[in-house]
Structure of Solute-binding protein family 5 domain-containing protein:
Amino acid sequence: MKKFSKTFIIAILLGSFVFPFLTSVVVAQDDDEIRRFRIGLTGTPAVDWDRAITSAYGIIDLWYKGAALEYMYGTNRNYDRGFSSGVPKQDTYIPILATSWVFDYWPEEINSKGFINKGGAENITFRLREGVTFHDGSAWNATVAKWNIDRVWIITGNLTGRGDLRNRDIYWYPVANYADYYTESWNLTSLIDPYPFGVYDGYFNPRPSDGGAGVDAIWGTADDDFVAHTPYNLYPIVKRVVITDDQASGGEIRIEFNDWNMYGMTSVGLIRFMSMETYADFWDTGIYGFDNDDPLYPDHMIGTGPYMYVDHDETAEPGGGSMQKNPNYWNRTALEAAGWYDADFIDIITWPAGTLGIESRNTALMTNAIDFALDNFFTPVDYDDVMSNNQIRYMEEKPSDYITAITLNCIDETWWDQSWGVINWSTTYLSGYPSGNTPDGVPRALRKAMSYAFNYDQYINVGLNGRAVRASALGVTNIYYDDTVPIATHDLTIARETLLNDPIFGPITAAQGLTASSTDSDWQDVANSVGGKTPIWSLEFYWDDNFETLKNVFQTSLEDIGVTLADETGALGYKVPTTIWTEAQIYWLNGFPVFSADAWPLDWNIPEVISEGWIDAYYADPDDGRWRPPNYDFSDSIFWPDFNLAFTYATETDAWVHEMYLTNDTARGTVMNKIANWSQNYQYPWIFVSQSKEGYVIWKDWEMSDYWGVLSYTLLKYTGFPAAPIPGFEIGITLTVSAVSVVSVVYVIMRKKKIH
């Protein structure tokens, strides 16, 4: 990315002293101008884009890759009609790089658990679209499709020793986990011990290593340490890909599955297709980073999509990058004939996470330095300002699929309990955090009491100005959500009685003179150590700047049950400098104390549909409680918890998770609500706080269609502002130097973008 001279930046800063005394009048782009659609974001980190290795949650994956690389098929906002009205799932998919498909299903047969496995796809045949080319000019065909799919399983299974195991659990499943559910036709017992791990369409690695230096750097293990041991045999979801019609363009493939594959195409639906010609040397190893100037890799994200990736720079402030319209896009003619696909460039402009970044983004929005912004929990717009501006359109969406929840550590009820003693972590683990390295959680009675003590109405209606709804374990937008399943509400009577009557906390509360008739002040005095009182628990709660309001409500709520926070201001290191998401999700790299911290807030995703994988990730034991002997050196292990960081391991939930994959839609909803009920009324692993109200904010000189349920760059239409401006309409530039400087730099980014 082009660097801007210090002289120019100084000029911008000096200019900001003049700009506040001027007004900004909205000016439409001329028809002959290059049209740039500018998106403002905050707090989204940039990570790898390659599906085989990426977490899929960075700005590159969410805001660039989807426009550069395409799926074989897609879903839009009507996808749930396949659940609500009985429409076959395959009829709800929308053709993209594939034009049609045919399903062959596994026979519906009874398993040893006594119910019938239903709805699993044994194989799917795809007819591929003809006349499609990649950004490098190479053709899309069956050979390329097979290469892309094979590549994911070769890398995630590390079948050549050059792979990367970080996404292994997405594409490879434990054989033994489903042994009780096998039927006469669907049976993988041949892959159970002593059959070794690592078989995919002729590729076989009998001694899988940790992937070489690339993975060593992550896991801290020695070269060639085994990462798969019996009974930890895994099977690839896809068995193989067969080319059934080999054409220079288009053609046909058949994907055969090992897995029951209940949704048919979802296991391959994660794959966006890249150019085989450009990335031929990376058939068995990951493509890391996103810098097109990196000499280790060809240009990034060479796909078939409507936009070509140019660059993204995280070092600038604000940061950002751009994408350029693909002149050879296969669907260009149809889109333009319908009046869409008007943006010549997509500019992504980013600010850091936190209050300052949000304020800067909102200033850019209100001054039309950007055209589009999301309104959600992490990046809220100034809703009143937006709604009062007649030149800005607010598009209300459903509540967020992301649940704001407070993780409550249940580790003491798992095989990680105190009897294990101090885990032998690597020497760098837990450095810089106040918690120790001994597994230590929160007793269930206290988890329940905190769930009933939290003041949900205060947080949602006051802290968030009503811009959220109460959350649940499945999420209130989920198609299986059942509002008759009880959930904790703000009820101090239940919260206090839970502690007073508990074998552990009963004596503790009695020692502080607390009874059922104690007043609010009595409980608060205990929390605040008034008159020689001692809090019944000092909660090791971590948070970040985004959750400051939630922390404040949580703190006052806990005082009502005699509990205090170990660090109320962040002075002791419990307030992380980045984001909780960043810290917790890569705890093995930065040492965030997931095993010993009591609680922390986190937004986690439960999609409206196809949420089973997420339920699995949050509730299932990652290895069914086997294999780890006492005093095992976990610094050498890759079998660490990934998403289930509340440690909600239980035999019954593991069984429910397995069953939910193999039943029909009705039975699946029943099973998922058993999990919700267990979570909300027995285990209390999370305080399910809220789901934010969300919307899209877009200036009215652009129109967008929400056909896909999300912003689609191809479905943007430039209309210009109304010919007759609204009388007196103008936008005052804010008087602060910092805000004007931010907008000025944004202007430079969007006008001085370096095009490769």
Remarks:
- The longest helix spans residues 665-683.
- Residues 6-46+314-397+694-751 form a domain with the D-Maltodextrin-Binding Protein; domain 2 fold (CATH 3.40.190.10).
- The chain has 22 helices and 27 strands.
